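tool=predict chain=A
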Amino acid sequence: MNIDEKIALAGVIVSAFGFAVLIFQLFHGLRLMRSEKIARIYSELHQVHHAFVEYPELRPFFFHKVSLSSPPEGDHTSDDALLYYRARAIAEMFFDVFEHIFILKAETKSPILDDLTQAPTNIDESFEAYIQNTLSGSEFISAYMMEVNDSTYPEGLARLVRVTVLREWPEVFAQYRNNGNA
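tool=predict ok
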């Protein structure tokens, strides 16, 4: 084997090694992207749950099936009204996180890459189960989400909300269906 052949062989070996490193970096980057997705969602959920540390009196309306009625029209200052509006702000925060879950789910959906990168396959299902559990435990947030049933939200989220609310809170579903929101 002459020097030119040895140099060509070395070039092929170096190219093959470089290609292998590139593939490894690609899959490592995809795994990092999935991890960042999960971390962002948990960070947002942590912020929402922090509201219950500040306002523990609101927790039953979101996790223990306790009802909360809207205040009489024009009442913005009574204790009941302040409680309602504070709870509504938290419901909006929950909905923002739920929407973010479905947007990130759509952005990172790739069954082939998930298999190749060994990404956790049950993360999306876990977040969907969390959403269903949250809706099941709260008539208030279920009613809020039916009220804001907007065509700009991801269809998967809208469908999950409708199915869960119909199963867990049929009277809420009927109320908003009759108003044209379901």
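The chain has one domain: 31-178. The chain has a mean pLDDT of 83.
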